[in-house]
Amino acid sequence: NPGALWGARFAGGPSPELAALSVSTHFDWDLALYDIAGSHAHAAALAAAGYLTEGEERRMHAGLDALARRVSDGSLRPGPDDEDVHGALETALIAEVGPELGGKLRAGRSRNDQIATLVRLYLLDHARTIARELLRVIDALVAQAEAHPDAIMPGRTHLQHAQPILLAHHLQAHAWPLVRELERLRDWSARASVSPYGGGALAGSTLGLDPQLVATRLGLSRPAENSLDGTAARDVVAEFAFIAAMIGVDLSRLAEDVIIWNTREFGFVRLDDAYSTGSSIMPQKKNPDIAELARGKSGRLIGNLSGLLATLKGLPLAYNRDLQEDKEPVFDSVRTLEIVLPAVAGMIATMTFDTERMAELAPQGFSLATDVADWLVKRGIPFREAHEISGALVRLCEQQGIELHEATDEMLAAVTPRLEPEVREVLTIEGSVASRDGIGGTAPVRVAEQRTELVARAQSA
Ligand code: ARG
């Protein structure tokens, strides 16, 4: 096998069974352009250390550029005998610049330090794409909040009516975790910006190559401090997979709210036709499939993370071939987010709210009972007692089948004379939300202030 990177000490080529198990070109070809970038940097380090003449270095870069063009236009693909992206590209380089020069590039590097570097480059690039798409979901939530600054909805805990809140407050509550994901991606990027190149197979290189030169050329901040750690650690991949899974979970919770709001029973939102699907049998159906797929795909994002952690657990130092199993799950997480995020952004941006229905339901289920208790507290009554009084009023109203604001003066007085008719001033949803004006509360002024802060945080992440 002329393409093999090893073989001299073997009596024959690999068995077909081994080749079938070992081959990784069907997924690691996604790293081809990063592999070539690594080779450019490595060639520069070889030249700087005197292993390539100026002319050789020039021809090497030109050859690598030619490979990059052919990878990009699809004319260069791995062959059936290629084990991995590294071998396939070395074969192609030798065909391009000849065996004499092409055979020099492998000096002082191993596929182990290469792959550990390339996977970082790949993830750093995709972290930027994912951040951009996350920002679009945040923008969609913020735009909807801005378009409905005063709309009031029932706020729930345990999925039961709890207290009235602003729709904008709820939408922004879904945006904040996504802002934190942006911040996590930024923090992760700083940690990921390390180059294992130069670590060789595990113990470092004898050739006196400058690993900082390679790191700088690759846009990474510094070389790995420890060659064993550099080649064998994959926490950088697992941490990325965690962030991807966490984003999946955030989107899933948002999706679940949309699915519930979209039911006939709730009737809070209508999804745009372009972002809903129909049924093959029931002509009337309009389904929230984007939300369901976002919710469903969070399962596979979690699976990718768990699978990766299971692969890493128990691996002795340094490199083991098990580490090849890091790529498919994390590549899948990247692809999954890159298709889910734009769909969710579009669904959120185009959905319309039935704010009248939300406002009508907001005071139902005695959701203003806390406001009654707080009103009493402001009149000097201990909260414990105020809670009891408000609870007694709820029970009375429930018996009569009416809501709190419908209680007559006589009913209020029957509970306690301290419940004067003025209590009705807090028994409106507008009064209730406006009064929750502490930092982070649902009062319109606070929610607007919060939105400014949210946008600033998202933009600086
Ligand atoms: N394909 C391997 C991986 O993904 C990199 C090659 C290292 N292979 C080896 N036999 N040392 O980790």
TrEMBL record:
The keyword Repressor does not apply. Gene3D superfamilies: Fumarase/aspartase (C-terminal domain) (1.10.40.30), Fumarase/aspartase (Central domain) (1.20.200.10), Fumarase/aspartase (N-terminal domain) (1.10.275.10). Its EC number is 4.3.2.1. One of its GO terms (molecular function) is argininosuccinate lyase activity. SUPFAM superfamilies: L-aspartase-like. Residues 366-434 form the Argininosuccinate lyase C-terminal domain. GO terms for cellular component: cytosol. Its main location: cytoplasm. It comes from the Bacteria. It catalyses: 2-(N(omega)-L-arginino)succinate = fumarate + L-arginine. Residues 21-303 form the Fumarate lyase N-terminal domain. Pfam families: ASL_C2, Lyase_1. Keywords: Amino-acid biosynthesis, Arginine biosynthesis, Cytoplasm, Lyase. It is found in: Cytoplasm. GO terms for biological process: L-arginine biosynthetic process via ornithine. Pathway: Amino-acid biosynthesis; L-arginine biosynthesis; L-arginine from L-ornithine and carbamoyl phosphate: step 3/3. Belongs to the lyase 1 family. Argininosuccinate lyase subfamily. NCBIfam families: argH (TIGR00838). PANTHER family: ARGININOSUCCINATE LYASE. This is Argininosuccinate lyase. It comes from Microbacterium immunditiarum.
